[in-house]
Amino acid sequence: MASNVNPTVRRRRLGQELRRLRELKGMTAEEVAERLLVSQSKISRLENGRRSISQRDVRDLCGVYEVEDQRIVDSLMEMARDSRQQGWWHTFGDIPYSVYIGLETDAESLRVYEPQLVTGLLQTRAYAEALVQGALPETSTTEIEKRVQVRMRRQERITAQNNPLRLWVVLDEAALKRVVGSRLVMREQLEHLIEMSQLPHVTVQVLPFDVGAHPGLNGQYAILEFADAADSSVVYLEGVTSDLYLEKAQDVQKYAVMYEHLRAQSLNVEASRQFIADVAKTYAD
To answer: Domain HTH cro/C1-type, which positions (predicted)?
Structure first.
């Protein structure tokens, strides 16, 4: 049904198919741009799914690629139409990381490394509010509430009865000991973290300080994987003013190997849960 269409994923799949047609034709993005009198950056954005694509764009590209099978053209046109629908997150207005939300909403599994903070999908409301207020001090109360509401809505993927998101989180010890909000907020957050870690599809490991140097020192990242074989895995790197999405197989593989090292260097699941509980006790005073 149309209401279940994820526009971000549809744009991504459509972009992949358009790239495949271009490569079959033996054309570069620059050559296509010259034929259509548009910028090369537009063709690149259409192919990587970062830009909304119209049915007219699809028609023009199919013409350049000399696609003769009308069934293929009709299928691509339908994907373009679906990709322009709005996901649930659009009801909250302009969300800076809406592309990521679209990918996360459709992902089958998510691996996250967090060096400083409890990951968003496992945050309590109080922790999330304090975090946004601290990280974005000039943000209005209305904007803070909107961001928190979106974060709480995203967490429905974790608690869903059917096909919940498989989540694996490696948290640096710093994320447990950085006081966000207050000691009470932290105690409740860590207790919530322990509770969520007991779900069969959620794994939480702690990377203690005494490990020393490790592959995650360059910062936070997430690896999203999808059930559909046509959807390649994505590495997401969050930035202050813009985000980075890596989809090349060699890039994803490099980050996946790094993640395996982080898992191996972290405490096991039971030891991690006990570690979190011990830190939570320090906030009971």
So the answer is: 18-72
Q: How remote is the C-alpha of 77 from its chain's centroid?
A: 26
Tokens describing residue 214: 């490790």
Distance separating alpha carbons of residues 260 and 253, to the nearest angstrom: 11
Q: Are 114 and 175 in contact (CB under 8 A)?
A: yes
- Nearest-CA neighbor of 65 among 11, 39, 27, 34? 27
Alpha-carbon distance 72 to 59, whole Å? 11
Q: For residues 6 and 102, is the Cβ–Cβ distance under 8 A?
A: yes
Interatomic CA distance for residues 208 and 262, integer angstroms = 11
95/58 Cα distance (integer angstroms): 27
Whether 203 contacts 91, CB under 8 Å = no
173 touches 208 (CB < 8 A): yes
pTM of the entire predicted model: 0.76
Distance CA 71, CA 85 (A): 22
10-residue averages of pLDDT along the chain (285 residues): 54 81 88 88 80 83 87 83 66 71 87 96 96 88 90 92 93 96 96 96 97 92 85 84 82 95 97 97 87
pLDDT value at position 2? 35
